[in-house]
Amino acid sequence: MTEPIFQRLTLIGMGLIGSSLSRRAKQSGAIAREVVACDLSADACERVRLLGIAHHVEPDAALAVQGADGVVLCVPVGVLGEVAARIMPHLAPGAILSDVGSTKQSMLREIEPILRRDVALVPGHPLAGTEYSGPDAGFSTLFENRWCLLTPPDGTDRGAVARIGAMWVACGARVREMDAAHHDRVLAIVSHLPHLLAFTICGTADDLADETRGEVLEFAASGFRDFTRIAASDPVMWRDIFLNNREALLEMLARFTEDAQAMARAIRWGDDAFIVDKIERGRAIRRSLIELNQA
Amino acid sequence: MTEPIFQRLTLIGMGLIGSSLSRRAKQSGAIAREVVACDLSADACERVRLLGIAHHVEPDAALAVQGADGVVLCVPVGVLGEVAARIMPHLAPGAILSDVGSTKQSMLREIEPILRRDVALVPGHPLAGTEYSGPDAGFSTLFENRWCLLTPPDGTDRGAVARIGAMWVACGARVREMDAAHHDRVLAIVSHLPHLLAFTICGTADDLADETRGEVLEFAASGFRDFTRIAASDPVMWRDIFLNNREALLEMLARFTEDAQAMARAIRWGDDAFIVDKIERGRAIRRSLIELNQA
To answer: The pTM is what?
Structure first.
């Protein structure tokens, strides 16, 4: 049998992503000889034990990373720096440190200054998720046919990048490397802005007079229902993403707002051609998505 | 056997809604003795004939309505007035005229001034649809467990309202009466604004530099995919809805934009509590939707 990618892989944070990666790694055998699961919540640790999705469960992150040649931080991006600082002195020499966060420039800003010279940093972001969270929400096929984006800074050890890439390929994902700033712009438009709009429209509806609000719920047509599905996601995770991808997100929101105002103006003045053109572009993007088998 | 609701029901416009209603009426027997389908497109008429979803197919609306005691206009709201003017002289005395449009004040504005005194007007709006269009897209169960909103003006013959309501109940829908202005506000927030946002974000993404645009399609995360599903809907229908519900839609967009700007400010200044509160409200609305079995 081929050697697994890691001897001991420690996953910190047993949410949807961490517990899915743990399940896959424990099932596969090709990823790691041993999987160590860590979560600061005693309840989460207990669930992981009962589910049997890791070889070891260790609530203390400093202990959990000892002897691990691979460590993946699967915590909300707002606590990445804090968790990294806590484990840094305890990492094994030569260990590879990665993460799964949705914002990559903030990750580098927080972790690069405290990074040990004998540890390789390979930031990662699997584009996968559901509106559910916690250790019970995970499943081993979550990453299949999904992208995982890696944003290693210049000069990162290529062997370390290859091993993290191989881990995601073993999870069924496709891997692409890109610059962290570019990653943050792309994600701002494909994911962070849509979520911001979804949360916002729910609030706008909630602020309407009571009578209308009840009817909003009662008569929710397909558009609003789709929006609220997005809006059901985890609040802390999304707060952290918004705050940590501030610049790109605010820029995309500004562009979007200009475009929405242009549409409002066209509606006010009855500019048929403008409106139809915008709608047609939406359909064209939809067709492209279907052609790319992403829909 | 009980008498059907109508002796002769004419449906003008064989899109998703018209062809679904035609299928249901032809199957049920309780709705009408005879179903007459009308569409100004020769192709659509041919498809209806081949599909066998009406008893008669008549491309000329003036001929199609002759002898009908029920007429439902299933055309985009932008041509409602024109079609109503065309058929008005040919309607049978005592006929009931209805529609299925998404904007009700505009419908009343266009049709009430030309309405014959011996014809009853019962505006209707079934809250049902898919992102597909045309006679082939329809299906007889489209309206099951969906709402149909009726907005009859004051003084409308109650017998006529009851018959149109009974038609929708026979389609499996739940019926509610409300004021046209109130209808337009509720629909602006649950349906029209979500569609406007979806069309707009597709355009915003499409305007990004070429390199990023390709990646938007490639990496479209779940948020963006859900938006583009909405954005795949029929352009002419949506243009007409936007233009005909202008006031309510622009008001809801203005409220939404204020809320989005407040969120942007909270992100810029790191106001954690504000952001989490907005996200929690989205989740609460989602939970309410699930409780109402609308999700």
So the answer is: 0.86
